[in-house]
Amino acid sequence: MPMLSINQRGALLSVLMLVVGLLFWEAAIPEQQLATEMTEYERLMGGGAPRAAIPPPSDIIAKAWEELSDPFYDAGPNDKGIGIQIGYSLYRVLSGYFLAAAVAIPLGFLIGMSPVAYRALNPYIQVLRPISPLAWMPLALFIIRDSEASAIFVIFICSIWPMLLNTAFGVAGVRQDWVNVARTHELGPFKTAFQVILPAAAPTIVTGMRISIGIAWLVIVAAEMLVGGTGIGYYVWNEWNNLDLTSVIFSILMIGVVGMMLDAAFGALQRAVAYAE
Amino acid sequence: MSKPFLSIERLTQQFPDAAGGTTTVFENASFGIERGEFVCILGHSGCGKSTIMNILAGLGAPTSGAVTMDGAEVSGPSLERGVVFQNYSLLPWLSALKNVCFGVAARHPDWSKAQVEDHSRKYLAMVGLEGDTVLRKPSQLSGGMRQRVSIARAFANQPKLLLLDEPFGALDALTRGTIQEELLKIWGQTEQTVFMITHDIDEAILLADRILLMTNGPYARVAESVQITIPRPRSRTEIVEHPNYYAIRNHLVQFLGHRSKALSGQPSNGATQSPETVVIDLTKPADDPAPEARLRAVNI
Ligand SMILES: Nc1ncnc2c1ncn2[C@@H]1O[C@H](COP(=O)(O)OP(=O)(O)OP(=O)(O)O)[C@@H](O)[C@H]1O
Ligand SMILES: [Mg+2]
Description:
The structure holds two protein chains of two kinds. Chain A is mainly alpha-helical. Chain A has one domain (82-276): MetI-like (MetI-like fold, Orthogonal Bundle), CATH 1.10.3720. In chain A, 79% of the residues lie in helices and 0% in strands. Chain A is built from eleven helices and no strands. In chain A, α4 (82-113) packs antiparallel against α9 (189-227), α4 (82-113) packs across α10 and α9 (189-227) runs antiparallel to α11 (245-273). The longest helix of chain A has 39 residues, at 189-227. In chain A, 31% of the residues are buried. Chain B is an alpha/beta fold. Chain B folds into two domains: 6-80 and 159-168 and 191-294, P-loop containing nucleotide triphosphate hydrolases (Rossmann fold, 3-Layer(aba) Sandwich); 83-157, no CATH class. In chain B, the strands form two sheets. A seven-stranded mixed sheet of chain B has the order 6-7-8-3-9-10-11, with helices on both faces. Chain B has a four-stranded antiparallel sheet with strand order 2-1-4-5, with helices on one face. The A-B interface holds A 177-178, 180-181, 183-187, 195-196, 199-200, 202, 273, 275-277 and B 57-59, 76-79, 81-83, 85, 87, 89, 91-94, 102-103, 106-107, 137, 139, 157. Magnesium ion (MG) binds at residues 49-50, 86, 165 of chain B. Adenosine-5'-triphosphate (ATP) binds next to α1 of chain B.
């Protein structure tokens, strides 16, 4: 038998862990259901309210199959396909995120290039940065008076800091030698910024962007639970209210998968702008 | 006496030192370089050669004093002064070719992309870089190759003044020889003036019209300006046969070995510090028979 590579062995072990984990989970469920059946008396007494139980993985796979085979159906405000819900969430995350990037990257450039701007803005950044983005929600709702825009604002405010600080840090750290190359070639400030400083600082900036998108995706779920209406966060909360745990678990998995894909996209971007000195 | 093409007037550079005071790298240094001249500067590590070059490039501002080129004061960097930095300073995210194109495109904003690339490839070929090698990033090149890319970038712009900070330091003897010859060829064809820092005495004698000798710092001085009285074209193997070669070489070795230290550390007390011109020429023994008289000191 040929030796498997480290990658192959890792993948094999991963699959093994998944299978074993799911089997254990599946095997653990019937007892629980038995327990549910045993409480028929209780159920009678309790007025027939359905009792939530952890579903077995087979149910979740069936649910996933059902949802993913028709992800974009729309049957009224409380019954939309998972694709539509994720689409809403992505729309909010990306609008808030790109607004934040449009502010943070130029501002980060300014702070990185000018020690005066850095000293002037630093106290504000230090105070605003540790605020939980959800703490802005009431104020945003009051001022903007629109739940949609408030959710986008919350994404904006949570994703701006890593990008701002990383851009400033990256720009300030550009080697003087490279700036001197630009100077000896009489490059103007704009050409210097785009042809030398931006590519030199790009790995640091993209690292900030990657951190930001991760945070934005974490925050959108909580924000949508608050503002309601649409989105994957609302979907989770709604299914919890319906006591449909199969859907809850399925959507939790979907949140993870989408988050992973967002991160992978920025990981690819990071590799594209990386350079070795 | 009219001003030389490049004129350095009472240049002083001080830096804050660790103890909170100031160290004076050099003080009131004055010298000139004529148009088309090839001048090398020799001195021990840390005496201030790169500092002078930075000021000539317009990258560093001296504490006091002025530099003029072509009658105009040097107040900042310019495309007319091409620099090969001591540490190559290539942009690591660009390929070797793109690094040269970067300079050429800055020099000729009106050129098409193809024109810029052709011109860049031509100069890369001149320093022996051709084919797929030029598409590699600096991190994938050897130290010597990087240095050659940096040289090609400076030469491709055909500046009036070339400032070279130990441009051949990382090259093996063989490549060094070829590129020195290339440099002489390019220099011979153009009106370019070259100011070059080197640690290699033989290289300096091969290339230079004149060698400036610097004493050790602090308070370093450009103490002597030694004329290289060996006719051109010179070649590596032939110059050693010339009667002046070893006389000049001995003079340089003596300076770097003893006098660079003996003359160091003396504040100028306000006096302008100009190098003494030294002419060593054994081919005319009838004129100056005594060894002492071979050293003819003339202030600029
Ligand atoms: N920015 C600076 N701040 C303080 N001291 C400096 C600075 N730049 C250079 N020096 C000092 O000035 C002196 C001359 O430095 P310089 O780099 O010009 O030396 P060099 O002659 O080029 O040496 P080498 O041959 O090793 O390159 C050194 O003692 C160095 O420590
Ligand atoms: Mg140096």
